[in-house]
Please model this.
Amino acid sequence: MLLSDRVLKNLEIDYIFHRLMVYTPYGEALKRGMQPYMSCDRKALGEELDRIETVVALIEKDRYTFVEMRSVFKHVKDLRGSFQRAAEGITLSLVELFEIKTFVGMLEKLAHYQEKLKWNWPDHLKVHPIPVLKQLLDPQGSGINTFYIYDEYSETLKDLRRQMGEVEAEINKGKLQSRELVQNQLKVKIRPNGELTINKSNKELMHQLEGCEGLVYSSETYMNITYKVKTAGQIEILMKKLDDYKLQEEEEELRIRQKLTAEINNYMSEIHHNIDAVGALDLLVGKAYLAIGMDGIKPMLTEDEVIEIIEGRHLKVEDSLTKQGKAFTPITVKLENGVTCITGANMGGKTISLKLIGLLTAMAQYGLFVPAKEMRFSPKEYIFFSVGDLQSADMGLSTFGAEIMEIKDILQRTEESGLILIDELARGTNPAEGYAISKVIIQYLKDKLATTIITTHFDGLADTEGIVHLQVRGLIDVDFNLLKQQMGNEGELGINLVHQYMDYRLEVIKDQRKIPQDAINIARLMGLQEEILQEAERYLE
Amino acid sequence: MQLMDLIENKYRIISVVGMAKNAGKTMTLNALIDEAMERGIRLGITSTGRDGEKQDIVTFTEKPLIYVDEGTLIATTEETIKHAEARLEILEVTDHRTAMGRIVIVQAKTPGHVQVAGPGTNKEMKEIADRLLVLGADLVIVDGAIDRVAAASPAVSEAALLATGAVLSRDMGQVVERTIHQTQIFSLPKLEDLLVQQIAEPIIEEKGFCLINHGYETEILEIKTALGGGRIIGGALQEDTQYVIIGGSLVSKTLKDIMECTNRYKQVVFVVKDATRIFIEPRDWMYFMKAGIKIQVMEEIHTLAVTINPYAPQGYFFQPQEFLGKMRQFLSPIPVFDVVLGGE
Model:
């Protein structure tokens, strides 16, 4: 497993999947089942990333066709249940046949769009129209996407319906004649259903109606009496005949539906190919749109144990900064196996950098483009991410205890090609012992196959021989005396100010430099009481 | 005069709502269908379901069998079309789901009986009704659920037919009273102040509550349930409060609680989305009106006509001519039709 559920959650990869839009139920199923590519799937991962690259290029060339393709996707319904029933020999209903007809029509459209895009689509993505089924469900060749049991399905049905039509016409004619006869005779208005209801108080009319040959008593209430136009004996016979026909029609329709179901069953393998292809196409197009939407690039696969990100961006943080009208400072890092330490100011984005490295690596291994200018990497066996604030109280562990538990486990896998991300190692305990433990863990990890990145505030951890030291540039170029004056004038404090002056970029430190002590200055920017800050500065001296 | 004379060429979506079960809604519906057949109007028919209620299966059996002409468009459920007598062509399967399967839109290829069961919410009903128009219906009739007037909401239909009948009470006077009450509520005046409309719209959308004063300043009230809301509203009414916007339903208790807190209710106008959101009994209504409570609606309901059924299934009945005459006298100018004896 590349990532545990907890690491998945801490990296907030959901945010990315939420933006990966699929429209068909088949695409949705594939999206839900997405698994990361492991290092043994390197070839398949490369091919998938190449396909996204191709589709991105196709979208940029012919956006309109993709808009049309996706509007077809939106109407694709999940018919797997119907096909399953058909395969089990259960006769499809009228609605199911209609939906299959719609599906077959969509296949034709999608295949047409695929052709228009002029790419040699790999077979697992290629939609194969099934003209035989189209013809089967549109026997009139009308091209209209509605459905009923057409006369064309059988001579028997056609004859039956013709006879029914004739009988119905005769009945209607007969009824109309007798209705009009009575209407003219009695000068009353009879309802279209052949009934006439009158109030019993109208004795005169009632008497007339009683005596009328063409009317027959139907029903009465205390107040009213209803008469019906008498149907001639001949019409009675016709109506009985019509009922018989209706029964026969129903039987014939069932027989036809059975036949259609059996016919559809013959094409089950084509149908299933298309279900898979539509899903895969939907997902691939979704990935390509995601790539375009986040201004992403194709990560390059390498054989070396390296993760190199040039101007990588953390989408979620970037999005929330954009909403505030601010820009995300892209992060550039090159990580090799062994240990890299990230040091630097509080609020300098160390944790975000760590998350970004983990997230972009995970995205690449899920076969997605990444938000960066360039990325080179080799697929990892696992991504481990220990973030300081563990919610392990339910296990009866302190922050420190929970962290150690996790690290104990991961230290057993350091000979695999993995990515270990640890945010502020041993921060939950006293500095002296925390430092000692951290120092030894770093020593232990520094020449292993796994790539480890650790953020820390401890002095002297990052200058261990054989490890890479990255530092957030932080507030180094800020003139605090000037800033203090400005603040005095405007009185604006807090996160916005920190963000304004913070340089989030990482730089490689070669000498044994002390970790810059920005905590007091940042506290000042955040607006901590000046008397406390000055007292703290006195202690430091 | 026929019912259709009031409708033809004037409205495209109308609803038929009954004040109670057996009030004659189905007879009204059938009368409309007969008249449309005579005039060659292509109808679209749908019905309101009962959203999320277990009685769906019961309602299923209660759904009226409707005899439709060839060419009629019907929006009903997957289950009901299986039992249709008319030959149906499927035009569309929608994504709206009910306990009886998805809503499908069909067209009758031959005349015959069909059962109609529709979607649950007003929003869905409106969408389905619009779809029927797009697919070629000249006029859409929304068959309202038994004893529910929600389909009359202007959010769904442009005008409503109200079916009432002897079933409401053994006392004809009572039936007349309750029918007048319903039409009174249906004819509540529309909120005319455009600025207040603008302010009220989002509040009502979110089923919230707010007060608006003469200067168009608003105060949002945090009210969890409408039942306890009266006291909060009453306590919040200021000297210059002009409007009380009520997002959900308006019930008697809320108004009574407000009246108990303050007499400032006399100076304000209560605003609800439309008359189908008001649940107040006639006696309370009279009292509130007398006390000087003013209610306005965001959207008006147009009551086209009232149809009456002088017979109750319990076995009693009213003298039809007397009943019709009385109804006409009290409901004027709203036209009244006896759907049992038919038009004259």
Remarks:
- Residues 50-62 of chain B have pLDDT under 50 and may be disordered.
